[in-house]
Amino acid sequence: MKTFHNEAGPGQIGKAVLMPGDPLRAKYIAETYLTDVFCYNRVRGMNGYTGYYKGSKISVQGSGMGIPSMGIYAYELYHNYDVDTIIRVGTAGAVHRDVEVGELVLAMGCCTNSNFPSQYHLPGTFAPIADFGLLEAAAAQARSSRTPFRVGNVYSSDVFYEDSLGEKGQWEKMGVLVQEMETLSLYCTAARAGRRALGMLTVGSSIHHDRALTNEEREQSLDSMIRCALELAAECAGEGGTAGRAEDECPAQEQGCSA
Questions:
Q1: pLDDT tens digit string along 61-97?
Q2: Over the Cα atoms of the chain, what is R_g?
Q3: pLDDT digits 0-9 by tens, 94-126
Q4: What is the DSSP letter of 99?
Q5: DSSP result, 15-76
Q6: Which domains are present in the chain?
Q7: pTM for this structure?
Q8: How many angstroms from the chain centroid is the CA of residue 138?
Q9: How far apart (Å, rounded) are the C-alpha atoms in residues 238 and 242?
């Protein structure tokens, strides 16, 4: 069912979806790693693609920047397109001094300054968390591929340019690893829909020093994360979206997909 933000037709989106914030990264993932690729959405420049990875039908959809934008696209994927699993593949800035630039962070839980969860009218504070099956499988995949990673809490913020300098650094004392801007609404939306979600984040910079990924390092680190996410998505793409389900490989001929 088409929406105001997505023009995909019935059956055009897979059960497992990778979601980078940048629609150009979605294009890169689809054209680099998937076969038989087609572009199902160009609305507002937020391109979405579907193809096959090791015989499994996988989609890649840009989310845009920020909690509200991710909330829109995740909601529609879960509710309008019956997606079972969304894996965010994004970048983040380290707020904990032990986190190294280039590391992969698996978001076990999510703190926030956003009012997004208030829409659920709960009699307390909701703690958004990842699906444990996805988290466990992602950690195993990172270990097997020798990708350096950490698992822990992240801070999902409504603000990039903070008015009070040093505010984001306060989260370090609570053991929070990184700051980013989308995981909160993904986890909340997944929980409310009874679906599965995981945030996988490559650390691109740190508040504790000026070191940042070079373009070459960024490509290498992001590709390691993307490959881990694709392996996980392929496991989830079977009937019912159960992580760990073996899929028959059925290589298909690659086709280009222009934006």
A1: 999 999 999 999 999 999 999 999 999 999 999 999 9
A2: 17
A3: 999 999 999 999 999 999 999 999 999 999 999
A4: P
A5: SEEEE-SSHHHHHHHHHHH-EEEEEEE-GGG--EEEEEETTEEEEEE---SSHHHHHHHHHH
A6: 16-241 (3.40.50.1580)
A7: 0.90
A8: 12
A9: 7
